[in-house]
Amino acid sequence: MAPVKVTKICCIGAGYVGGPTCAVIALKCPHIQVTIVDLNQARVDAWNSPDFKLPIYEPGLEEVVRQARGRNLFFSTDVDKGILEADLIFVSVNTPTKKSGVGAGFAADLNYVELATRRIATVATSSKIVVEKSTVPCRTAESMRTILEANSRPNCQFQILSNPEFLAEGTAISDLFAPDRVLIGSLQTPEGISACESLKEVYANWVPTDRILTVGLWSSELSKLAANAMLAQRISSVNALSAICEATGANIDEVAHAIGYDSRIGPKFLKASVGFGGSCFQKDILNLVYLSESLHLPEVAAYWRQVVEMNEYQKRRFSKRVVDTLFNTITGKRIAVLGFAFKADTGDTRESAAITLIKDFQSEKAFVNVYDPQVSADQIWLDLQEASPLVPLDNIKKQVSISQSALEACKDAEAVVIATEWKEFKEIDWEAVYAGMNKPAFVFDGRLLVDAEKLRAIGFKVTTIGRP
Ligand code: NAD
């Protein structure tokens, strides 16, 4: 079967993945019309804003959107029109962890995937290639196929592909420009292989073909969960070692450097920290745990669950270290938390370690000043309210305030906690910070970001992860 030549793409979901991914496709493929649709009017308005105040912060993204928007890249809330016109549809909707019901706290909430799939089935008047871009449990494509076949017009054929996204927030654009690999999974039927070729042709406009891997549908779905589980496992492994370092006098940076020199291990993703955050690692591992349990593989489930438990332990351990160091009480003390995003170069706060730390400090009756260069005050209040749903927001605001700069956040504080590795925290005027703080002045570096010796020379008492 000759592959369909893709001329119109629709992406359902204009979030952290759908937005950057399809903006880059539009940039690299000027001959393809790309329409990104979303039900969220505010988000679409932001993508379309005349002054390019985009809904997500990502280095290099604005430049991509400036070049392609209005040429062959469009953002819209008209989901049906997007579906009708496209020959290839990405489903890039959110797949959060289920909050209630069966599998709550573990299973993926596939409601958004199902609704988007039903919409495609109902609206489409011609055959389409439907691409899972969202991270989904293994064999979700089977459910999508059943929904599409049961609800579509008789003349419409749907081929389902899996094309998981491996970009990392903060480096999304460079990841998309030069991906380690693009993974496409399809059924090994003539129609499936032909659909796979159509998508491969799109990526081949800028990705070398030896970096475009084509595999079976179920392998592709599982590979995304596996990749995130392996990455998170490295972080939990190094964080587990950091606890041993603190107790023995070993230094986690030296240990990570030494083990990373082994070419079988490699140096990346061996940085100890206060714990991983973000919308994906925890959710995808829990997904794997749930999948393993559903497949009656309890030992496998327990193995992966431990990666998440280690992460929770690392956050708790860090909060406890702050309390212990501040003479076993932080009641009434002011703590500056620098950073609220789950990592640097993003405004995304989902599952950020900062949220857990601030909640712990609140429960110890401390006062907290928060500063983050990219996260809005509205987002911070939303996250803190969600973390403590039973506490009225006015009460949260009595304990937490939001500062406009790092220096302001640290004024009159007893301690500074670095929760996000923003480069600007490395470069702040630490002498001025010290001058404005109560003494003794403490720094707790949750990201191994600052030069501890330099800060000690100023007078700070510095605690870092993975060192005694
Ligand atoms: P997101 O929440 O930022 O974006 C999802 C968007 O989909 C939202 O704007 C929502 O309004 C929209 N949406 C939901 N249902 C819809 C529907 N029926 N019709 C139209 N729009 C709809 O999520 P995200 O971070 O972009 O993640 C999307 C998927 O990609 C998830 O499965 C995630 O696990 C996966 N993923 C995320 C990352 C990451 O770094 N964020 C990386 C790789 C993969």
UniProtKB/TrEMBL annotation:
<feature type="binding site">
    <location>
        <position position="350"/>
    </location>
    <ligand>
        <name>NAD(+)</name>
    </ligand>
</feature>
<feature type="binding site">
    <location>
        <begin position="93"/>
        <end position="97"/>
    </location>
    <ligand>
        <name>NAD(+)</name>
    </ligand>
</feature>
<dbReference type="InterPro" id="IPR017476">
    <property type="entry name" value="UDP-Glc/GDP-Man"/>
</dbReference>
<feature type="binding site">
    <location>
        <position position="264"/>
    </location>
    <ligand>
        <name>substrate</name>
    </ligand>
</feature>
<feature type="binding site">
    <location>
        <position position="38"/>
    </location>
    <ligand>
        <name>NAD(+)</name>
    </ligand>
</feature>
<feature type="binding site">
    <location>
        <begin position="165"/>
        <end position="169"/>
    </location>
    <ligand>
        <name>substrate</name>
    </ligand>
</feature>
<dbReference type="InterPro" id="IPR036291">
    <property type="entry name" value="NAD(P)-bd_dom_sf"/>
</dbReference>
<feature type="binding site">
    <location>
        <position position="447"/>
    </location>
    <ligand>
        <name>substrate</name>
    </ligand>
</feature>
<dbReference type="Pfam" id="PF03721">
    <property type="entry name" value="UDPG_MGDP_dh_N"/>
</dbReference>
<keyword id="KW-0520">NAD</keyword>
<dbReference type="InterPro" id="IPR008927">
    <property type="entry name" value="6-PGluconate_DH-like_C_sf"/>
</dbReference>
<dbReference type="Pfam" id="PF03720">
    <property type="entry name" value="UDPG_MGDP_dh_C"/>
</dbReference>
<feature type="binding site">
    <location>
        <position position="169"/>
    </location>
    <ligand>
        <name>NAD(+)</name>
    </ligand>
</feature>
<dbReference type="InterPro" id="IPR014027">
    <property type="entry name" value="UDP-Glc/GDP-Man_DH_C"/>
</dbReference>
<feature type="binding site">
    <location>
        <begin position="13"/>
        <end position="18"/>
    </location>
    <ligand>
        <name>NAD(+)</name>
    </ligand>
</feature>
<dbReference type="GO" id="GO:0006024">
    <property type="term" value="P:glycosaminoglycan biosynthetic process"/>
</dbReference>
<dbReference type="InterPro" id="IPR014026">
    <property type="entry name" value="UDP-Glc/GDP-Man_DH_dimer"/>
</dbReference>
<dbReference type="InterPro" id="IPR001732">
    <property type="entry name" value="UDP-Glc/GDP-Man_DH_N"/>
</dbReference>
<dbReference type="InterPro" id="IPR036220">
    <property type="entry name" value="UDP-Glc/GDP-Man_DH_C_sf"/>
</dbReference>
<feature type="binding site">
    <location>
        <begin position="280"/>
        <end position="283"/>
    </location>
    <ligand>
        <name>NAD(+)</name>
    </ligand>
</feature>
<feature type="binding site">
    <location>
        <position position="43"/>
    </location>
    <ligand>
        <name>NAD(+)</name>
    </ligand>
</feature>
<feature type="active site" description="Nucleophile">
    <location>
        <position position="280"/>
    </location>
</feature>
<feature type="binding site">
    <location>
        <begin position="134"/>
        <end position="135"/>
    </location>
    <ligand>
        <name>NAD(+)</name>
    </ligand>
</feature>
<dbReference type="Pfam" id="PF00984">
    <property type="entry name" value="UDPG_MGDP_dh"/>
</dbReference>
<feature type="binding site">
    <location>
        <begin position="271"/>
        <end position="277"/>
    </location>
    <ligand>
        <name>substrate</name>
    </ligand>
</feature>
<dbReference type="GO" id="GO:0006065">
    <property type="term" value="P:UDP-glucuronate biosynthetic process"/>
</dbReference>
<feature type="binding site">
    <location>
        <begin position="342"/>
        <end position="343"/>
    </location>
    <ligand>
        <name>substrate</name>
    </ligand>
</feature>
<dbReference type="GO" id="GO:0005634">
    <property type="term" value="C:nucleus"/>
</dbReference>
<dbReference type="GO" id="GO:0051287">
    <property type="term" value="F:NAD binding"/>
</dbReference>
<protein>
    <recommendedName>
        <fullName>UDP-glucose 6-dehydrogenase</fullName>
        <ecNumber>1.1.1.22</ecNumber>
    </recommendedName>
</protein>
<comment type="pathway">
    <text>Nucleotide-sugar biosynthesis; UDP-alpha-D-glucuronate biosynthesis; UDP-alpha-D-glucuronate from UDP-alpha-D-glucose: step 1/1.</text>
</comment>
<dbReference type="InterPro" id="IPR028356">
    <property type="entry name" value="UDPglc_DH_euk"/>
</dbReference>
<comment type="similarity">
    <text>Belongs to the UDP-glucose/GDP-mannose dehydrogenase family.</text>
</comment>
<keyword id="KW-0560">Oxidoreductase</keyword>
<feature type="binding site">
    <location>
        <begin position="224"/>
        <end position="228"/>
    </location>
    <ligand>
        <name>substrate</name>
    </ligand>
</feature>
<feature type="domain" description="UDP-glucose/GDP-mannose dehydrogenase C-terminal">
    <location>
        <begin position="336"/>
        <end position="452"/>
    </location>
</feature>
<dbReference type="GO" id="GO:0003979">
    <property type="term" value="F:UDP-glucose 6-dehydrogenase activity"/>
</dbReference>
